[in-house]
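Exercise: predict the structure of this protein bound to protoporphyrin IX containing FE.
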Amino acid sequence: MKLDLFGPHFKADPYPTYAQLRDYEPICRRDAAGGKSIWFVTRYDDVSALLREPVHFVKDVRNTMTPAERAQLPPTPDLVGLLGNHMLNLDPPDHTRLRTLVNKAFTGAVVQRMAPRIQAIADGLLDRVQRRGRMNLIEEFAFPLPITVIAELLGVPARDRARFRHWSDAFVTPSVNVQRGAKKVLKMRRRMEDFTGYMRAIFNERRQTPRDDLITLLLQAEEAGDRLREDELFSMVILLMVAGHETVVNLIGNGVLALLHHPAQMALLRARPDLIESAVEEMVRFDGPVERATMRFAADDLMVGSHLFHRGDAVSLVLAAADRDPAHFTEPDQFDITRQPNRHLGFGQGIHYCLGGALARLEAKIALAALLQRLPGLRLATAAPLRWRGVPILRGLQQLPVAWEMSRTM
Ligand code: HEM
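Solution:
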């Protein structure tokens, strides 16, 4: 079976393809861009086991190389070094050091204190559209909410969110851009330079006038000496910005779409708001924002099941396939907001388990509750097929036009 991982048809509904792979070729190798190939792993038990194997499956491909191979590597392009040296691309001990620097800011108790502010942002966005009776949910609600939250947490002006989106787009679609040629690569380079220039100005300002925000905290760690290099600082900020909104926008978008496609579940959630937490978990499982984990590389020649993975082989763990594995979930293709237990892999597992899990859950919970409370009769406002973004590992809609009953909102 051919895997067209970028095509619009695949993106519209990847689940039947993933089900076939899970049933017939649960560990398979497919050609990828640049003459390379990738192992795809689709069963829950295998995906879960490999996520928890940070020694044999590493994130930094250099850790699969011998010293002689490393010595022959071409120098890392400056922008890649400046923006790619973040925890999600690194292995211990660097991963541990970087994660420890920001861990405290994302614990459940700290995040919970942000609830009133998140509620105010959600209400402010709905105030703008409520009397209009319709909106593009992605553009006017699902995107501005998390980007404002993460911008405020970091300490960058939320009014610049259109620019963040531009930069973030370039960051999450590198392979697509490379395929489209040199002109696109150049454009992406310019965007990234624009981003680093923008951030440098903020860093300078914050060094002079420290504030109670994450950037100030990170700058203090950088100045303290051995804990954070300048490239790691830039990389951390872009990672938090991208991971902090690209995913939540899609959790809100995909989650609302699931409710619109399952009116009985929407009615149940309206009748029983206490199910909101369980509904959010089911949204992450059923059609989660991260379709496939970021790439891992085999550190040695290894047997996985009956397959020999060679040192350096790229491995893609398909979270979307694992989370619909019938060996783990009864009726996995059913969207059931009361599902218990629901140990999905949508936030990953192991040492790279999502740092922002508590924040993402809180944002989604507040956003969805506000939507349901304030927009009665919420419905899809288009008959045209919905279009999905062509971003390789993420899963999210380009647009989601919705409408509601105005008479009942006055
Ligand atoms: C629904 C929303 C979200 C989902 C589904 C999600 C999912 C994930 C997944 C699957 C991973 C692991 C990737 C891998 O192992 O290859 C991850 C890692 C990460 N996520 Fe999230 N995420 C979400 C929201 C957030 C938010 C709001 C933040 C906030 C800053 C965040 C920050 C991170 C970071 C920093 C990592 C890397 C952790 C590490 O390498 O140790 N995520 N996320």
